Structures are given as C-alpha cells and as structure tokens.
Amino acid sequence: MAVRGPPGIRFLQWLGLTPCWDRQKVYQLWTLFLTFLCYTSYHLSRKPISIVKNELHKNCNTTQNNTNTANCSSWKPFDGSDYESLFGDLDTAFLFAYAGGMFFSGHIAERSNLRYFLVLGMLSSGLMTALFGLGYYWNIHTVAFFVIVQAVAGVVQATGWPAVVTCVGSWFGKGRRGFIMGLWNSHTSVGNILGSLIAAAFVSEAWGLSFVVPGIIIASVGILAFFFLITEPKEVGIVMEDKGRKDSYTVQADGPTQHIPLCERCFNEESETETTEVADSEPLLGEEIKPLSGGPSNPKAISFLGALKIPGVIEFSMCLFFAKLVSYTFLYWLPKYIKDEEDYSPTVSGDMSTLFDVGGIVGGFLAGTISDFTGGRATCCVVMLVLGAPMLYVTQVVFQTKPSTSTAIGMLAALGFLVNGPYALITTAVSADLGTHKSLKGNAKALSTVTAIIDGTGSIGAAVGPLLAGIILNKAGSEQRAAQWDNVFYMLMASDVLACLFLLRVFVKEIKGWCTGRCFEQETSNVT
Predict the structure, then answer these.
(1) Are 31 and 166 spatial neighbours (Cβ–Cβ below 8 Å)?
(2) pLDDT (0 to 100) of residue 436
(3) How many other C-beta atoms lie within 10 A of the C-beta of residue 45?
(4) What is this structure's pTM?
(5) Measured between alpha carbons, how far is 79 from 189 in angstroms, rounded to an integer?
C-alpha cells in the first residue's frame, strides 16, 4: 500500500505498524482524540488570565489579606482604582482580535494545508501565552505590553476552531454527530478546568508560570499534531461517501477497490417513502437554495455571502452571540465574582470556578445526545436557555447569602450545565450540520467558512460580555460591589432571553415538523 499521511503516520507505516482491524474506525478515533487534545490546549492557554486577575490586583480589605499586609501588593499598573477597566482592556483586546481573526481564519483554512495552519496557530499561541507570563520575570509594568500580547494572542487563537471542526466533520457523518461532538466538545470545559488548576497552582508564588506552563503545553501538543494529525480521510487512502444519513467509505489499496458500509442500522427493508421521510426530518434543513458550483470531485471554496444564505446560519449565529456572551463573562469574571462574594483566596476561587465547567461538560454531552435522538437542535437550545435565565437569578440571590461550600458547588455546576449546553451544541453539531447542508452537494470546503461565521459572530459576543462586565463593575466602589454584580447578572439574564428569541423561528419549524410527522403516522395506522 502506498505510504500516505502526515510524517508520524508515514513513519509508522514504514515500520509496518498499521491498524490490524478496521482502519477507518481507528483513524476516526485517533483524529477525535488528537483534535480533542489540540483544542483542550487552546482553552487551557486562555484560562490563566481570569485566575491571575486576583493576584495582579489584590483586595487588601479582605480578612485574609489583612493578616499579612506585607504580601498585599498589587502588580503595577493594575494597582490603581481603575484596575477593573484595565482588566477589561486586556479581555477586550484578546476577544475582539479573536472575533476578527475568526472570520478570516475560516477562509484561510479552506485554502491552505489544514495541518500546517493548525500547527502554526498552536505554536504562535504558545509563544504569546508564555510571553505574557514573561512580563513577570522581565518586571514589565506597561499596560501596552500586556494589551498587545493579548491582541496578538487573540488573532492566533482563532486558528483553532475552524481547523479542528473541519477535521472532525470530514470524518463523521450526521447520524450520531450530536452525541459524538457533544462528547468531543467537552475539550472546552476540560481545557478551562486544567487551565484553572495549572494557573492556580502557581498564581500565589510566581504568576508568570501560570502563563509559561500552559504556553509550553499548547506548543508541545502542536508539535504532536504536526506529526500525527490526519485532517481528512483521503490522506490515508480512505474516501468517505455520504449517502443520506448512512456513512460509508472506500479503501484505496493496491488491489481491487473495496467498498465497506459503516451504518449500524439495518436499512434492508427501507422503502423509498421512508427514505424521503428521514431526509425531510433532517435537522436544520430549511428551504432549498441554489447549489454551489463544484462538487465532491471539484469543490470550490464557498463565499461569505453564500454561507449566510444557508438556512439557519444567521439565526444560530445570533443566538451564539448572546450565548457566548454569557459563557465568556463567566470564563473571565467568575473567579473574581467568587472571591468578592465569598472572600476566598485566589487559588480557592480558581478551583471553585472549575465547577462551572464541570457542569458544562455534562450539559454539552446531553444536549448533543438528546438532539440526535429527537432531531431538534434548536429545541434543545431553547429549553436550556429558557431554564438558564431563572437559574442565573437564583445563583445571584443564593450567593448573596454566603452559601455553604456544597450549595455553591451545586449552583455553579447547574449554572454551567444550562449556560454551556446550547453554546457547545451550536459550535459543534449545529455548525457541522450547516456546513454540510444538502445544498452544498458534498462540498467539504464550506465547513470551515460556516464554522468561522457562526463562531466568529459568537466570539464578538464573547468580547462584548466581559467588556460590559468590566465597565459595570468599574462604576462601583468596594462598598457598592454587590449591587454592581447584580447589574452584571441582569445583563446576563437579558442576553440569555435574547439568545432564545433568535431561535424561535427554527424552534417553531421543528415543532411543526414533529406534529406533521406524528399526524402522518396516525393517519397511516388508521388506514391500516
């Protein structure tokens, strides 16, 4: 067999270490694992800033810090009364650069070697993350240095998502995409958790290591991806063929071509009517639009406007704008909120904030699994968003009463479940569904652009949320902090409601589709 794939895979083939059983499944699992590792490292390297904020500016009015005032010195220039505004500048520099970079990264990814593109982004992200931490060792106290590093980091971090989603989307069909990508998308929360724990381990002693260590980790994973990431099946001689909801592949070998079906369901007795019914119930498919030129044999990169014409792209993009606004406000400000409300140390606040991500792992997985079973991506999002708004209010009220540790753990996990569930579903299964819309006629090159549009729009919301939180909190003195945190939560509740409203059209369409299908089944049974 011809030697194919990235350098590491080619070396293993040269040694004769090729999969001894189903090659396609082995490579699927390996790609799923390695892309999971890649994006875990991306989020791992983003998280330290939220943990280190409590060390860059120490609240010397707390009981714990009063016991040792000699160690209660903040890092210039974050030692002034405008420190929250400066923290907002850091978050804004990163997130707006990330959002802007996301819209361009999808187009670049489609037109370049995906593995090179991803690896370059990971190495650059590692460099920028470590560079922020080196400011501690170089004794840098200039705001411009940290803002510029954050802005450049935002641009290079935008390389990750379109690349890994395209890799996974090229290996998996729609049949169990919600389940697979819901489980796979836990990399976001796993990365946040590991990033929090790593940063918290060093923050009190040498906060520079809270950035340097994650920078080394993402660069190391990038090197691993360079040698072993298989971005698409044809790199290892496998050609995926999409036939409705069934996945199949062809192995290209030196001998006769072998066609192997993969679907586990039995379709031997499937009638033409049943096939049409399944196609009609395919989630996220709206009215027909004009197919793109080019096809699987000669795919052409989709234009920005062409991607926007795909039914559902605009609605889910706007929904993600507000859903990600809520999620990223917690990503950047939750440790600070916990410290202000509970008077915990920076290390304990960082550890407590990981519970939000633990709930997010479960929420993303269940949202994907349930949406696979029901076919209602929008419905799952709407239900979780509807429950999320009152949960935000309950969390706000409970934390004002200084709850017990067990109560705080339960509240944070439940909040993460409801907030991150829709966010995870839209950025994974929904993006992949829309990026492989039937009007594209198998044009896999569209997936990167669609993913970039949806997540890019969401990333603008991710930039706006922490910025608004910083502005709101900056208006308050220490005695008014509780009232300003209330205003932050009101902003998050309003955003949650708006996210739900943008999905109403798609939600109603899914409900009507279920009702129509159920009426058809009842009429058929009555005739029989």
Answers:
(1) no
(2) 61
(3) 31
(4) 0.72
(5) 31
